[in-house]
Amino acid sequence: MAWPTSRGAPGAPPARPSLERTVLPDLRTRPVTELPGVGPKVAAALGELGVGSLADLVSHYPARHEDLSNVKTIAELRVGEKATVVGRVVGLRGVGRPVRGRAPGLSVQLYDGTGYIPAVVWGRGWLANQLVPDTRVLVSGEVQRRYGIQLAARSVEIVDDPETDGDNAHAGRFVPVYPSNSGINARRLRTLIHRALDEVGRLLDPLPAEVVARQGLPSLHDAVHEVHFPTSRGHLNRAMRRLIFHELFVLQTGLAARKARVEASETGRSHRGDGGLLNPYVKGLPFGLTGAQERVIEETLADLRSERPMRRLVQGDVGSGKTVVAVAALLSVVEAGGQGALMAPTEVLAEQHYLSISGALAELPVNVVLLTGSQTAAERREALEAVKGGEAHVVVGTHALIQKGVEFRDLALVVVDEQHRFGVGQRTVFKEKGVTPDTLVMTATPIPRTLSLTLYGDLEVSVIDELPPGRQPVETEMVAASEREGAYEAVREELAAGRQAYVICPLVEESEALEDVRAAEELHEELSGEVYPDRRVGLLHGRMAAQEKREVMGAFRAGEIEVLVATTVVEVGVDVPNASAIVIEGAERFGLSQLHQLRGRVCRGLHPPKCFLVADPKTEDSRERLEALCEHQDGFKLSEVDLAIRGEGTLFGARQSGIPDLKVAKLLRDIEVLVEARREAFDLVAGDPRLRSPAHRPLRREVRELLGADVEWLFRE
Ligand code: ADP
Ligand code: MG
Questions:
Q1: I want to staple 544 with a disulfide (CB 3.0 to 4.6 A). Which of 75, 405, 548, 659 is the partner?
Q2: pLDDT tens-digit series, residues 605-627
Q3: Counts for the chain of helices (H) and strands (E), in that order
Q4: Best probe residue, ligand 1, of 283, 293, 324, 464 (max atoms within 8 Å of C-beta)
Q5: Between 235 and 160, where is the model more confident?
C-alpha cells in the first residue's frame, strides 16, 4: 500500500480534489466497520480504545512521537545506561518460574543490523501474541549484565514500519506511538487510520480561514495527516499546535457564545449606592483596606452600577480579606434599595459571617438575618418573613438560602463564599426563580488566572493579590506521629502566652461519618485528660446540633476554650485571630489545598503562627505534598506544585466546572495557545454571537460536539 495519496505537507495544495469535503462531526455517524477489513473482532478491539466511528479513528492521535534519531544502536549500548533501541524481533521465549503453566516474563531477542540483545519484559504476557518474528519494536530500559548483557525493558512498543509499507521516502525519524491494547497493534492501527483518511477525503476545516491564517497554522486536513504520518519535526510541531489551538478555540467559542447569550437575554439592573452605608462601614474598620481590596471593591461596584448583570469571581488566597469585599458589595446594593444574600458552604462559616457582619454593622441601619437548615421552625418562619417582606436587608445563610419557600422581596445581589465547595449548578439556581441578581463568587482555591478564565469562561475575574500588612508566614513543620508530643509541647507554650490552638482530627472517609465523630471524641478525651489537663479543651464536629456548635464556636472566639479539637468543619473561612497554632493529625490524608486552607486558620493574628503536620507519609507523592507546604506560603505556588504532582486532570474540579475532557490540549502546558484561542474566539463571537453566518456553521457544529447540551440553544429557533 502506498501512503502518500492523501498526504500533503502543511501548506501544500490538497492532494485530493476538494469535491469530497467532510466535517468531522459527520464522521461520527459512520462506524469503523465501514472500512474494508474491519470486522466485528477488530471493531471490538477498537471499541476498547474508545474508537467507534470514523471520526474517532482519524482523531485517535498518537500519544507521542518517538524521535528515532535519539535511538542507540545495539552495538553502542553500555552496561548501566538507560537507552532506547529499535530492532526487529528474531526470537521469543518465556522467562521466570511459570505460574499455572505460564511464564511471568518474556525475553525478546532483538536485532538491529549492528547486533543482538535480549530485552526482558515482565508482566505483559499478552505482548507474546504480537511479537511475532520480524515485528519492529521500540524498547526502552536499562542495560544490565545478568547471564550476559540484557536490556531490562521499561517499555516495549510496536512501531509502525514504513519500510515494509513501500514508502521508503517517508521512513521518517518520527514514529508515532499510539495508545493501543492487546487486541490491536500500533501498526494495524496506523494502517486503519490511513485507510480511514483515504476514505473520508478532504477534511473540511471548521475554523475560519482568517483565524487559521492569522495564527500561521496549517489546515485541519494537513495537521491530521501530519500528526499520523509526520514528515519532519517542524511540520509535526506545527500540526500539534494546530490541533491544540483547534480544541481550545472550539471550547472558547462555546464559552464566548454562552456568555454573549446570557448577557443578551438577561436584563440586569443598575445598583447605584450613595455610599451612605459603605463609607461609614469602611471608616469603622479597625484597619485600612489593602490596595488590592480597594481595587477589587471598585471593580465590583462598577459592575453593580452597570445595567448588565454582574458575574464576577473574586480570587484571593486564604486570609486575603475577601469578606470585606463581600460586605462592601452587599452594602452598596442595600443603599440602592435592594436586598443582598451571602451564601456560605458550612453552617459554622455562615454563623461566623452572620456574627461578624451584624457586629460590624451594629451602628448602621442595616438589618442582617441568618437562614440555615438547622434553625427551629419558629426562627425560620421569622427569618423567611423578614426576607419576603423586605425588612431583612442582608441575608446570610447556607444552601438553605436557595431552597424552596425562600422568597426575596427584591434580591439584587448574591455573594457565594468559598465557591469551590459548592457544585457549579448552584450558581444558577437563583436565576431559575425568575430574577437575575448580580452574582459575586469568591474562592481561595488558587487557580492561575488564565486557567480560571477557561474554567469559568463566562465570569470576569478579580484577584486580591496582596495580603494585609503584618501577616507573618506560618512556620510549618512535619512531625512523625511518634513524635507528636513535641508539637503538643510547642502548643503548650503558645497557650501559656495566652493564645489559642486548633487540633484537627484525621480525615475519615465521609461514608464513615460516625467513626469520624468517634475519632474526634477520642482525641478530645486524650487532649483534655492527658495532654492539657489544666486547659479548657473544646470539641467541634459536623454531627453536633447547631446550637451546640454555635456555643462551642462562641466560647472559642471569646477565648473561653483554649484548645479546639475539630474536624474539617473549620476548614474554610473560620477566623479567630488569637489562634496561633494548629496541629493537623493524619496530615497525609488531606489534599494540599485543604491543608493550606486549614493552615490559613492561624495566619490572621499578630503572633508568629505555627502549623504542625503530624504525618507518616507512605508514598513519595504524599511526602512531596507535605514538604511543599512546609516550604511555601503562597497558595498559587502550592497549586502549581499540586498540579505537578497530581497532573491537571484531577485538579480544580474541572469536570464539575463543565469543562469537557480535552483530547490534545493540556491547559497548563498550553496556556499561551489558550490565551490566543480565547482572544480569537471572543472576537469572532462579538461579530456573530449565535454563529449564524454560513461561514461559521461548521464551527457551530464542532462547538456542539464538544459542549453538548450546554449549547443546544445555538441550534434552536
Ligand atoms: P479570607 O479572604 O480568607 O476570607 P477574611 O476576609 O476572613 O479572609 O479576612 C481575614 C482576616 O483579615 C480577618 O480577621 C479580617 O478582619 C482581616 N483583614 C481583612 N482585611 C484586612 C486589612 N486590610 N488589614 C488588616 N486586616 C484585615
Ligand atoms: Mg473567607
A1: 548
A2: 667 899 999 999 888 888 888 99
A3: 23, 22
A4: 324
A5: 235
